Amino acid sequence: MWAGNLNTGQGAAQQGFQMEVITPGGATESSELSVGPDAGSSTVMGAGDNHSMNFQYKHAPYQPGVYKVTLVKDGQPMSPTLEVVAKAGPPYTYAHIDFLRQE
C-alpha cells in the first residue's frame, strides 16, 4: 500500500486510494481520491501535503457513533476495516488516520 521507508517517513506518492466509510446510520460514503504530495491534495500547504497518501472525508451533519473505515483502491479493499468512534457531545470534527504497510 505505501511504497516508502518507515524510518524516514519518505515514500512515493500513492494516487487513486480513498477511504470507504460506513456511517453510524449505515450509509456507505467515500472520501476524495488520494492525489499524492504537492499535487493539489485536500489540505492546505504545510498541513499534510507531504504525505504519500492524502485525502479528506467530510460528513455532515455531525453524527455520533461508530464509523467503519477501509482503505480501498479501484473498489478493492487494501486494509483491514477499522472503527472510529465519534462521541456524543460537542462535535469532534477532525480525525487523523495513518495507513501503514505491514510486512
Using brief descriptors, characterize the structure shown.
single chain, 103 residues, mainly beta, Immunoglobulin-like, five-stranded antiparallel beta sheet, two-stranded antiparallel ribbon, 0% helix, globular
What report would you give on this structure?
By secondary structure, the protein is an all-beta fold. The protein has a single domain (14-92), classed as Sandwich (Immunoglobulin-like). Helix content is 0%, strand content 28%. The protein is built from no helices and seven strands. Strands 3, 4, 5, 6 and 7 form a five-stranded antiparallel sheet that branches. A two-stranded antiparallel sheet has the order 1-2. It is globular and about 35 Å long. Mean pLDDT is 73; it is low at 40-50.
Q: What's the architecture, going by CATH?
A: Sandwich
Q: According to CATH, what is the topology?
A: Immunoglobulin-like
Q: What's the count of strands? A: 7
Secondary structural class? mainly beta
Under CATH at level 1, the class stands as: Mainly Beta
Biggest β-sheet strands, sense, barrel: 5 strands, antiparallel
